Amino acid sequence: MAEITLIEAVTQALAWELAHDESVVVLGEDVGVNGGVFRATVGLQEKFGPWRVIDTPLCETSIAGLSVGMAAQGMKPVAEAQFEGFIYPMLEHLMCHAARMRYRTRGRLSCPLVVRAPWGGGIRAPEHHSEANEALFANVPGLRVVIPSSPARAYGLLLAAIRDPDPVIFFEPKRIYRQYKEEVPDDGEALPLDVCYVLRDGKDVTLVSWGATIKETLEAADALAAEGISAEVIDVATIKPLDFDTIHESVTKTGRCVIVHEAPKNVGVGAEIAARLAEHAMYDLVAPVERVTGYDTHIPLFRLEMKYLPAVQRIVEAAKRTLAVS
């Protein structure tokens, strides 16, 4: 079995669904002839034709509107926004229509669409190309928000997202698009949505993260292990709805929690997790919850970009602060 990158896993999942479900279509700017800005859809139009892999005008509003209309009529559109910062013109259709379709019709209609977008920083791109805006979408009832952190999870979670009867925002951490490879069977097996993945067992502190910062979080766990500190690592994966039970169970065991994400700290998803821990695990915690995040600014250009993103040392220091409390 060949090893593939995260971006290749996305292509593989799209190809599987196009081949096995005639209601699936892929659409977006340059997804056909050029294969997408990051080549996520390379070769798909040649294989499945221009009516299944559709090049659209440079108009995100129209892409979203077309997707909602097709989904309401029984198709399964997978739309691409070239960057997460280009997704804002889609919001009216996604928030006012896609997310409300089931509620508005009392369950008579659903809206099985997926919006894919390269997400997050770390590739030395301008600020509109480097945002981590998952909290905005997590606040909208009716939208599911998914962020994979590995090739295998990208493949399995994208399959599940396309098969889901309701709208899914699928953010792909582009910093790790081609960072490493792993074996991913092309067997059409979806991974479950709405669950966290425990990547490493531990007993001293719980590290919670998602997306590209899973890499730094695992490296921080390695650094802590070298000092005799056992860290449990949880990949949230589905931001909304949140599998809080898995996080709660871990924190009940360790008594300490560090939440890591690259989005700004203020009103981020980490704040929601911390709030739920305060509500449901106050007497299990032996130290305040720590958050290691991006800063409350737009992501800086180029020279300061990696300083903005959570680093291994910041995670290690936060974990040690929780361990200093007894």
Automatic annotation (TrEMBL):
InterPro entries for this protein: THDP-binding, Transketo_C/PFOR_II, Transketolase-like_Pyr-bd, Transketolase_C
Source lineage: Bacteria, Pseudomonadati, Pseudomonadota, Gammaproteobacteria, Lysobacterales
Matching SUPFAM superfamilies: Thiamin diphosphate-binding fold (THDP-binding) (SSF52518), TK C-terminal domain-like (SSF52922)
Keywords, in A-Z order: Oxidoreductase, Pyruvate, Thiamine pyrophosphate
Cofactor annotation: thiamine diphosphate
GO molecular function: oxidoreductase activity
Organism in which the protein naturally occurs: Pseudofulvimonas gallinarii
Name of this chain's protein: 2-oxoisovalerate dehydrogenase subunit beta
Function: The branched-chain alpha-keto dehydrogenase complex catalyzes the overall conversion of alpha-keto acids to acyl-CoA and CO(2). It contains multiple copies of three enzymatic components: branched-chain alpha-keto acid decarboxylase (E1), lipoamide acyltransferase (E2) and lipoamide dehydrogenase (E3).
A Pfam family that the UniProt record links to this protein: Transketolase_C
Sequence ranges assigned to domain Transketolase-like pyrimidine-binding in this UniProt record: 4-179
Gene3D superfamilies from the UniProt entry: 3.40.50.920, 3.40.50.970
